[in-house]
Design brief:
Helices cover 17% and strands 50% of the residues. By secondary structure, it is an alpha+beta fold. Strand 22 and strand 23 form a beta hairpin. The chain is globular, with a radius of gyration of 31 Å.
């Protein structure tokens, strides 16, 4: 009896399905040609969209796998792509600029490729040239002398002979230059346009607001940031001031739109980062500021260990301190520009210089180099034939190795 009921139900369902299909067919036959066309067009669009989504997903998956592979990949050797043995490396310095190399010495400067082919060159006379580069702009200052030379990627843009000896000079990505000058009883902080025009000068004294230790300029060129140090009683105090040379600063005393005092803290280094962010490196950590016209303090990161090294670029601030571990005596911390911790790692590389260079962290001494990515992953570590005076990243997996006997362009392998 149960089998008979099942057969009747199957027969009934089959009949209902046939009736529904017949109705659908009749409905299709009653549609206009325009409705048929729109249905086919919709199906085609849906199929095309599905294929596009699948293609994008496949490309994204491949890109993610490639990025993961490159993040984790390490190298064990390097190849010398080219060598320039005739370079006068004793008197010449090198720094990355606009994807190329700014080569400078007491006699002049030139912008060259990593194979030392010159794009432009210019002559000057300095005793102790020191360069600062920001993007496509550079300033070369004769430290303890009076000459400032300004450049962009196409060559010299301006020249200044200062009234007092230069202590330090910094350039912005727009070409504005700030310089600290030694005036004997007083110190001067001068602000120049990219053509060397004097825009402003500010005289400072030890008592007010203190001795200037460092200076930085915002990318727009409107804000000059200065860190001062003075002694208040028996305590060392630091003062960070922001000068606005645009419309906003006109109504402010000495054009200072914001300033912050830090008791018992030494701030030897300041810098502008990406966009309107800036940072002050302290002897106990660093402080971050944000604001395009009136910078405000937004975050302070402190460490309870003595900081022995710092490094930074537009996207990372790094601190190195000793940790007491015999096997790996150094701890490195890398922070994003909002103050969040990106990584922390212990290491034992006996470095003398550490710096951020085009997304990498480079460590080296006279005979060893080490390359890490921006997450602290070691990509290469090894010894070099010759005595190292500098080490610079010039492109993807390409580095400039400045040796006592010449310049090598190398590739990790």
């Amino acid at each position: 009896m149960a089998n008979i009921i099942k057969k009747i139900k199957r027969k009934y369902k089959k009949k209902k399905l046939q009736e529904e299909r017949a109705k659908m067919e009749q409905s299709r036959q009653r549609r206009t040609p325009e409705e048929v066309y729109q249905e086919r067009l919709s199906k085609h669009r849906n199929a095309t969209m599905r294929r596009a989504v699948m293609t994008i997903a496949a490309v994204a998956a491949v890109a993610a796998l490639f990025f993961f592979y490159m993040e984790k990949r390490s190298y064990h050797n390097y190849k010398i792509l080219s060598a320039s043995e005739q370079e006068d490396v004793v008197a010449t310095n090198y720094v990355e600029m606009s994807g190329k190399i700014l080569r400078y010495s007491p006699d002049g400067a030139s912008l060259v490729s990593d194979t030392m082919d010159a794009y432009w060159s210019t002559l000057y006379e300095m005793q102790n040239p020191v360069a600062d580069v920001r993007g496509d702009r550079a300033v070369i200052a004769d430290q303890d002398g009076t000459l400032l030379e300004m450049f962009d990627k196409d060559g010299e843009t301006g020249s200044v002979t200062t009234s007092y000896n230069i202590i330090k000079a910094r350039v912005s990505s727009s070409g504005m230059v700030a310089a600290i000058l030694d005036g004997g009883d007083a110190t001067w902080i001068n602000f120049y346009g990219s053509d060397g025009t004097l825009i402003a000068e500010n005289q400072t004294h030890l008592a007010d607001p203190g001795y200037p230790l460092d200076v930085a300029v915002s990318g727009s060129g409107d804000i000059m940031m200065v860190t001062y140090q003075f002694v208040d009683g028996s305590e060392t105090t630091s003062y960070v001031a922001f000068y606005n040379f645009g419309d906003v600063g006109q109504s402010e005393d000495d054009r200072i739109v914001s300033g912050y005092t830090y008791d018992g803290v030494v701030i030897p280094q300041i810098m502008y980062l990406d966009g309107d962010r800036s940072a002050a490196i302290r002897d106990d950590g660093f402080t971050l500021y944000k604001g395009s016209q009136v910078p405000k303090e937004v975050e302070t990161i402190k460490v309870d260990k003595e900081i022995v090294s710092t490094f930074y670029d537009d996207n990372i601030i790094g601190l190195v301190f000793k940790n007491g571990d015999k096997d790996k005596p150094y701890t490195m911390r890398g922070y994003s520009t909002d103050g969040s911790l990106k990584f922390e790692k212990k290491f034992n590389i006996p470095y003398t210089t550490i710096k951020a260079s085009d997304g990498n962290i480079l460590l080296y001494n006279s005979s060893q180099i080490s390359v890490m990515n921006s997450r602290g992953v070691e990509k290469y570590s090894g010894t070099v034939d010759g005595t190292i005076s500098d080490f610079i990243k010039t492109g993807w997996n390409r580095y400039l190795l400045i040796l006592d006997n010449g310049v090598d362009v190398i590739k990790l392998s």
